[in-house]
# Entry
Amino acid sequence: MHSSLAADLADLPALLQATRDYAVSVLAGLDERPVAPTPAEVPAATLPADGAGTAGALAEFRRRWAPGFSGSAGPRYLGFVTGGTTPAALAGDWLTGAFDQNASNRSGSSAAALEDETVSWLRDMFGLGPDHSGAFVSGATMSNLVGLAIGRQWIGEQRGVDVARQGVAALGEITVLSGTAHSSIFKALSMLGLGRDALKPVATLPDREAVDVAALAEALKELNGRPAIVVANAGTVNTVDFDDLRAILTLRERYPFWLHVDAAFGGFAALSPDHAHLVDGLAEADSVCVDLHKWLNVPYDAAVQFTRHRDLQVSVFQNAAAYLPPVSGDPDFFHLTPENSRRLRALTAWFTLTAYGVAGHREIVTGAIDAAHRLGERLTTIPGVQLLAPVRLNVVCFSVPTDIPSLVHAIADSGETFLTPTVYRGRPALRAAFSNWRTAEADADRVHTLLRKLLA
# Structure
């Protein structure tokens, strides 16, 4: 054994304690850590020849890289839709690395059974039915890809083509319809060989990002009975708008289509008594995407995909080799996802659900919604600031009377918060997305105070 490895093994308890102590100090300072300032350039180092051991690596990380890391785990990182990590989820993440399970199959470990249990809990939490099965994947992009891949297989089945065996060339052109599709949908279509141009945008309601169901019906009618894929939104990126899933489902009485719902973070509306109606109909979708490192507040990376058509999922992703178990009634996960080897992502979700239950996570969701509404209300008191849409859930989308790129830099360099720019209906805007378990209304007040100061 290499001398540094041998020394680290002998000193492992102390090394883990030192790492634990440093991690605790980082977390303890999150509230006041600069949220996302522009990091200083770090000169490149050469590849170590012999290595410095774990203690040396920790010291080097603290010196060179840690100062430039953002406070994205903290309460005022409002860019993108980024959750933090609950204490239980962090414990689960540490144990995920310690046990180092390859959660791809069911032989020799109970890891796959733990994933089954966690998926079933999430299915119940989001109000899906027992006919929905699921699996963990890396994020919303991969969850959307899996759902659309199964939908592609379903389209082929309607046309008498086994796409998984014959390829997309045998399938011919297919149509994907959506009102305000997330960028990951286009990326998934590209990776699946369907092409970004397969998505045909459908008109949205006036001053909304929600699809106009009448326009969707007309687009389906124009296909003259050809099956399609419909991508519905349960929470758009800019304004967290929701398609009327129940109304879309009624179109199945007239037209054949696969319904995929992108509920990356909007699916968590199911936990809020005041907003659960927004996801009515989710249980009848053919496939559903939910991103867990957003509002479930587990570490990157973790998402889950659901489908009511596991047989088609196996057709797409099955992995046959002499050394692997064949597909059975309860398929191994390497028959269900793009990855063969895969981290036990489910353990962090299992820990946080076990620790805090539905009630605890409901409080995280409703707290974020309250903070978003508070910021929205207070922004209207700043001259020139305009909300571009109602605060429907956890995102505040607003315009400002100044140059946005300069303001974004000023906000970031203040260290107080981090917001991301966007464009909504042709207007440059800012987004504040609330999803961190630590965030409180007092944090919304600090963001408001900063913006008032910078826009004075």
Summary: The domain at 102-343 is CATH 3.40.640.10 (Aspartate Aminotransferase; domain 2).
